[in-house]
Amino acid sequence: MNETGSTLPRRPVLGAVIPVAAFRALLAVAIWTGSTAARAEPDPQGGPLLVVSGPLSFAPLVRKVVPAVVNIAVTQDVDDDSQTKVKVPQALRGTPFEKQFRERMRSRREQMLGAGSGFVIDPSGIIVTNNHVVGNANKISVSFSDGTELPAKLLGSDELTDIAVIQVKADHKLAFVTWGDSRKVEIGDWILAAGNPFGLGSSVTAGIVSARGRDIGAGPFDDFLQLDAPINPGNSGGPSFDMHGQVVALNTAIVSPTGGSVGIGFGIPSELVAPIVEQLRTKGHIDRGWLGVTLENATGGGVAIVSVDKGGPGARAGLRSGDIVSMVNGDHVDTNRGLIRTVAAAAPGSSIRLQVTRKGHAVDVLAVVGRRVDENPG
């Protein structure tokens, strides 16, 4: 009781002895259930403890997700021009078989083998990976963590985002994983990356999200999560999971002077991957919107229209060079890449409303989106 007669809240007793087993159990519960009790306790400086500990072990998460992560081997037939100069074995030189040997070697077709990763998103055998892993393959083979190996076929791929969908036929329902919401991922969050580094077989690595919104010059829709979990060649196409075991990124690229991991890897956020995967598995290709304008970031905010293609959707809508676009369908746009992605996400033939500043005056422009082809810039 205090002086006014009210009951004070009971505080934990510092220095109380807790059995070791009980302490470990309480700590595990606090970490895995997200308990804020430990975080709310002030430190000697008077502020809250913002970080208590990482997970005691990733093993429960690994057991849950690894059965749905696959290794992918591809075969591509190519003409080998290097066979123009053929080294003839000594035993055949000067014999009737020398000419036959040279012709056979010049026409020989060799196989290029590659390896990558992927993950099952549907128990029927739908698998997500990178386009650069399977896009030019003649044969695709998928290996699972239990040793099962199955042939796969390509359902669809998209070069601009480096996303591909393949399918295997199994005699039972396959383990699969689900999409997480990459929009909720924060810099500093734990992630678990899985895949097939250097073709060695299934493995996992852990780290944190280092940055968001990275543009590495891979394509017009760059919006990568930067990850510091070790990602190496062969991890391409594999997933990165949040601590709930949901896929928040498709591992795609690394920056490295050595060719191996130096802690700078990049994954495509699930918010971008999931809708593209859905189109690829159902239609086999992506239909993207196009305005027919050249863009650049405006100094004072918004996106400036540098030029307008004659006869393009933007010209028909009345857009002009010098216009500053600040909003599309009521949502703010701050960068030219953001505007390109917004337009590309619109179905060809649909209408979008742009809020434009023209010579100091606000103008609303209604544009009917055209169909983007690879050579269209925006």
Automatic annotation (TrEMBL):
Question: Which keywords does this Swiss-Prot/TrEMBL entry list?
Answer: Hydrolase, Membrane, Protease, Transmembrane, Transmembrane helix
Cross-referenced SUPFAM superfamilies: PDZ domain-like, Trypsin-like serine proteases
> Which Pfam families does this chain map to?
PDZ_2, Trypsin_2
Q: Do you know which InterPro entries this protein is assigned to?
A: Chloro_Bact_Ser_Proteases, PDZ, PDZ_sf, Peptidase_S1_PA, Peptidase_S1C
Q: Which GO terms describe its molecular function?
A: serine-type endopeptidase activity
- Transmembrane portions of the chain: 12-32
Keyword Membrane listed? The answer is yes
* Domain PDZ: from-to ranges: 276-330
What PROSITE patterns would the database entry show? PDZ (PS50106)
- Biological processes, Gene Ontology terms: proteolysis
Q: Which organism is it from?
A: Lichenicola cladoniae
Write the protein's name: PDZ domain-containing protein
Top-rank taxon: Bacteria
| The keyword Transmembrane helix appears for this protein | yes
